[in-house]
Amino acid sequence: MATSKVEGSSSLRHAFGGVLSVFILLLIGVVAFSIRLFSVIKYESVIHEFDPYFNYRVTQFLSKNGIYDFWNWFDDRTWYPLGRVIGGTVYPGLTLTAGTMWKLANSLNIPLSVETVCVFTAPIFSAFAAWATYLLTKEVKGPGAGITAAAILAMVPSYISRSVAGSYDNEAVAIFALIFTFYLYIKTLNTGSLFYATLNSLAYFYMVCSWGGYTFIINLIPMHVLLCIVTGRYSSRLYIAYAPLVVLGTLLAALVPVVGFNAVMTSEHFGSFLVFIIIHVVALVYYIKGILTPRLFKVATTLVLTVGIAVCAVVVAILVALVASSPTKGWSGRSLSLLDPTYASKYIPIIASVSEHQPPTWPSYFMDINVLAFLVPAGIVACFLPLSDASSFAVLYLVTSVYFSGVMVRLMLVLAPAACIMSGIALSEAFGVLTRSMKFHITKYFECSHTEAPAKLGESTSTESSAPLENMTKSDTTEKPEVARKEKVARRKQKKEKELTENAHVKPVSAKKEKRPLVLPLEASIVSVFLLIVLGGLYVLHCVWAAAEAYSAPSIVLTSHSHDGLHVFDDFREAYAWLRHNTEVDDKVASWWDYGYQTTAMANRTVIVDNNTWNNTHIATVGTAMSSPEKAAWEIFNSLDVKYVLVVFGGLVGYPSDDINKFLWMVRIGGGVFPHIKEADYLKDGQYRVDAQATHTMLNCLMYKLSYYRFVETDGKGFDRVRRYEIGKKHFKLTHFEEVFTTHHWMVRIYKLKPQKNRIRGKSRKSKLGSKSTSSKSGGMTHKNPWN
Amino acid sequence: MAKGTNDAKLLIQSLRKAYAATPTSLKIIDLYVVYAVATALIQVAYMAMVGSFPFNSFLSGVLSCVGTAVLAVCLRIQVNKDNKEFKDLPPERAFADFVLCNLVLHLVIMNFLG
């Protein structure tokens, strides 16, 4: 009767715990969604940065023309005159997801525009990612750790930076796909069910559709399988978790056009095939071991080893020869730059020039994962007590992602979920120990002040009436009623599991000394719990501050605070709108590749190069044109049918990411393909300057002229607010270009190529070099340029 | 050397004896696996003779054989009564999972076959 009462109350507690967990998870989802809305509140619901504009344009096309046209789309508005095969070079996951959501909303008669759906895709999927983290950490450690990890992930600044409302980029859905794939893998590993293995492959397919970082999954999981085999943790569940994933996963990856046959031919996937072979060998060995006697098994191993090593050597030699024959050993440029961080700067300057590909500094770690930076080692320790397949996977994931985040700051994003899982485990274990100590002491205190006690197990009635002091020393006999009372007070499932095991320990051993729970002194526990809550509070404060101040800026609109209020710089959209309304539909616009996506999306004009950077020579052509003097630049642009040239200039307002600051990269990339552009020509004594000390080549190149044309008219001295000195060449005229538009704060300047003159007076002058029989008109204008 | 060959003969004999003791249902699954792998090898030999165009058809053919072999091995693991980890799993559920996974595999294959 007493036990059924206990069971009834414990099932009620189970139910209450379940409802509370669901409610907490709902709140976590709401937090994850709302913390990313700062940019919508502070600015407007607009797409940020550069890459999201391309995704937005593709989603617009998909929503207007349907999926078959999207798959077969050849875009002739970029990379003129080459064009770009969109269907085969874009990761379709993000656009298909947003397109589906838009279609669903519209079919339910909720009139959302494509832009609204695109802007809010990232916050919605970050809520899903938080729930996926709960599921993953529950599989690794338990539900308490799961909820903590989910709460931490909802707010971690590193993930917020790439998934804020308006940041419509691949990572918005890819991180959710990553965590969900890992969850299904661990679930398959824990349960050995083929159903979850199928779901795992489908989730991996979604990840391959979404992001190029899927190679991380297809290399991490084989590494983990290898680790399990090497540490002797091979089991048939491991085989079921891994082998179907490789086969089905490779097939599904090959289905995505952008991956195609790379799924079987590039080195990024070879690791998975190698481990596939290894796991079959290991499975066979275990099977034979099971059906043979030990002596015969030894005989078999010696036989197989002698034959097998010879065969292996041959196979490995063939493989090495195949791989070594390709110059990059089969790896793609981006993957190689991850393995060898100096590769990109030596061979592919475009990859090296992207600011996201630089190694991070220590302050960026504290900015992006804050408190987690020192909770992670505690989590690693907690994963080892006890070590299971799932917790070894979590440790491996963390270690590899820490290494890769150290190579490229953009990959801090992959570190964020691992750090959250580890910190969730650490915090949950810490709270478990501390609250258990508190409860132990509190119940002991109540036990001492109570004289009557409900003896659940009968054996302790004799000790109940003894003096309080004696009770405190006799820990073994007071365990049982405390255990019984603890059961009534327990709230968290996790601790209940611990106490049930303690109860199980207590029941068989009646009067001997039972296993004492590890407890800390009461004051230490109370102070520690309080300090941990303060730590959590500081973390939340930092996350909200980071989301509001640091990561919510849509780079398309800039603001600054001055003594007379808030200044808004909307120059980019002003320039694109001017282009859209004042030029012909078929006009080509040349600019540096950063602005390509925005120009095609907002101005709807054809561009020469854009952010996809797939053709280095084409970008080098534009870079060379920007670095050459006016005539040579005009020739290059004219050969590309360019009508308008766009430069970004921040010298009037102090905008530091303008083209003059990026100019050296243009020189380097151009010089990589056209050797007549030498970087040393643009530097004076190794220093890059545009003032009076600058070199002649620098002061005459197109970028300088287009940026600083008529700049001296603004303040009379030509003081550049970004470089903080006066410019070198102040008064000059443009001979081959004419200025057609400069935005309000001079941030974007648009120039038109002047058409060629009908009569080339220079040629006729050359043939009559010595004679002075030219007319008075030409005599008076000999010093003038024939283009004027 | 004679001891070596003697040992090898003894080894093969004991392997054969131990394998003969497995239940018939498992032997049927093993036969299916051998058939699938043999089909894959035949396809690879054909590709070596004729050339690998179209590559996607070759890939889907070989990977469908390998995939269904792998899934059959998983089924065998789950149905084997000697396997203590799966003694709670009813064999009908294992077979249903096998069929589902094969359905997904062949849907992808038919899409990729071209």
Automatic annotation (TrEMBL), chain A:
SUBUNIT field: Component of the oligosaccharyltransferase (OST) complex.
Compositional bias ranges of the Polar residues kind: 459-475
Needed cofactors: Mg(2+); Mn(2+)
InterPro entries (alphabetical): Oligo_trans_STT3, STT3-PglB_core, STT3_N
Name this polypeptide is given: dolichyl-diphosphooligosaccharide--protein glycotransferase
Composition bias, Low complexity: 770-780
Compartments where located: Endoplasmic reticulum membrane
Ranges where the Oligosaccharyl transferase STT3 N-terminal domain occurs: 19-422
Similarity remark: Belongs to the STT3 family.
Organism annotation: Rhynchospora pubera
Membrane topology: Multi-pass membrane protein
Catalytic activity: a di-trans,poly-cis-dolichyl diphosphooligosaccharide + L-asparaginyl-[protein] = N(4)-(oligosaccharide-(1->4)-N-acetyl-beta-D-glucosaminyl-(1->4)-N-acetyl-beta-D-glucosaminyl)-L-asparaginyl-[protein] + a di-trans,poly-cis-dolichyl diphosphate + H(+)
Keyword annotations from UniProtKB, A to Z: Endoplasmic reticulum, Glycoprotein, Glycosyltransferase, Magnesium, Manganese, Membrane, Metal-binding, Transferase, Transmembrane, Transmembrane helix
Every STT3/PglB/AglB core domain range: 586-645
Classification of source organism: Eukaryota, Viridiplantae, Streptophyta, Embryophyta, Tracheophyta
Positions of region (Disordered): 456-500, 758-788
TrEMBL record, chain B:
One GO process term, biological-process aspect: protein N-linked glycosylation
Entry's transmembrane regions: 31-49, 55-75, 95-113
Membrane topology of the entry: Multi-pass membrane protein
GO annotation, cellular component aspect: oligosaccharyltransferase complex
Compartment list: Endoplasmic reticulum membrane
Keywords (A to Z) from UniProt: Apoptosis, Endoplasmic reticulum, Membrane, Transmembrane, Transmembrane helix
Principal cellular location given in the protein's record: endoplasmic reticulum
Classification via Pfam families: DAD
Coiled-coil intervals, chain numbering: none
Pathway membership: Protein modification; protein glycosylation
Family matches, as InterPro entries: DAD/Ost2 (IPR003038)
Similarity comment text for this entry: Belongs to the DAD/OST2 family.
Function: Subunit of the oligosaccharyl transferase (OST) complex that catalyzes the initial transfer of a defined glycan (Glc(3)Man(9)GlcNAc(2) in eukaryotes) from the lipid carrier dolichol-pyrophosphate to an asparagine residue within an Asn-X-Ser/Thr consensus motif in nascent polypeptide chains, the first step in protein N-glycosylation. N-glycosylation occurs cotranslationally and the complex associates with the Sec61 complex at the channel-forming translocon complex that mediates protein translocation across the endoplasmic reticulum (ER). All subunits are required for a maximal enzyme activity.
Subunit (UniProt): Component of the oligosaccharyltransferase (OST) complex.
Protein name as it appears in the record: Dolichyl-diphosphooligosaccharide--protein glycosyltransferase subunit DAD1
Organism per entry: Rhynchospora pubera
Lineage: Eukaryota, Viridiplantae, Streptophyta, Embryophyta, Tracheophyta
